């Protein structure tokens, strides 16, 4: 059974479908982390007034960037694996997911653990040669994805480094990230996903 692409914006509609696809049941890189990255990314996207297509890519990144993890260790193997795995995930969950949007998500996942800004990645890896979106759309979309993930480093006791951030508004989201980190640090992930939308985002 497939779900609507718009489900990427609604945790209760997509999370139950994602949990069985995760390769590692992680407290550090699981549902709570995905949900926060999803929220931060969309807040940044709203501030930048990005398109609905860009927001779909950012939301999908939030939910899927760590699905290929097999452990909680460092390194970027899960990113490399995840860029391929997200194709299987989207084929499983959605019908006819737009290819150019999926290409952006794959790129965002592939490089998200490399510590680069979006600008650095664009030039070091000639991303514009392989993606159909405009330069600004690529930069803003990757920037929202990666800043959202790095804002959640707070859960590990690590403060985001300004030099590694890609959007001009990430520090506007930092107070919320700090608040949610305090509130969710005691959260124990269980096999119970019957939460309403407000509970996901508190």
Account of the protein in words:
The protein has 202 residues and is mainly alpha-helical. It has one domain (5-200): Hypothetical protein af1432 (Orthogonal Bundle), CATH 1.10.3210. It is built from nine helices and no strands. It has helices at residues 11-18, 31-47, 52-64, 77-93, 99-111, 118-124, 135-151, 170-184, 197-200. Helix 2 runs antiparallel to helix 3 (52-64). The longest helix has 17 residues, at 31-47. The radius of gyration is 15 Å and the shape is globular.
List keywords for this structure.
single chain, 202 residues, mainly alpha, Hypothetical protein af1432, globular, disordered C terminus
Discrete helix count: 9
What's the alpha carbon Rg, rounded to whole Å? 15 Å
CATH topology group: Hypothetical protein af1432
- Uncertain regions spanning at least 5 consecutive residues: 186-202
Q: Give the overall form.
A: globular
* Strand segment tally: 0
Distance between the termini: 30 Å
Class derived from helix and strand content: mainly alpha
Order of helices and strands: HHHHHHHHH
Main beta sheet, described?
Answer: none
**Strand coverage percent:** under 5%
Count of discrete domains: 1
CATH architecture: Orthogonal Bundle
Helix content estimate: 40-55%
CATH domain class: Mainly Alpha
Average pLDDT taken over every residue: 90
């Amino acid at each position: 059974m497939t779900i609507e692409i718009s489900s990427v914006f609604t945790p209760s509609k997509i999370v139950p479908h994602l949990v069985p696809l995760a390769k590692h049941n992680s407290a550090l890189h699981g549902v709570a982390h995905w949900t926060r990255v999803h929220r931060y990314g969309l807040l940044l996207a709203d501030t930048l007034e990005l398109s609905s297509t860009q927001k779909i890519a950012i939301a999908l990144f939030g939910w899927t960037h760590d699905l290929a993890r097999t452990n909680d260790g460092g390194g970027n193997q899960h990113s490399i694996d995840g860029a391929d795995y997200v194709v299987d995930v989207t084929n499983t969950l959605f019908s006819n997911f737009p290819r150019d949007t999926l290409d952006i998500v794959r790129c965002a996942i592939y490089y998200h653990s490399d510590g680069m800004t979006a600008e650095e990645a664009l030039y070091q890896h000639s991303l514009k040669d392989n993606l159909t979106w405009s330069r600004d759309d690529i930069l803003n979309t990757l920037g929202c994805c990666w800043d959202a993930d790095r804002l959640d480093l707070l859960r590990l006791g690590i403060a985001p480094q300004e030099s590694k951030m890609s959007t001009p508004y990430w520090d506007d989201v930092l107070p919320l990230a700090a608040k949610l980190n305090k509130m969710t640090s005691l959260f124990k992930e269980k096999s119970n996903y019957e939460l309403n939308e407000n509970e996901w985002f508190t």
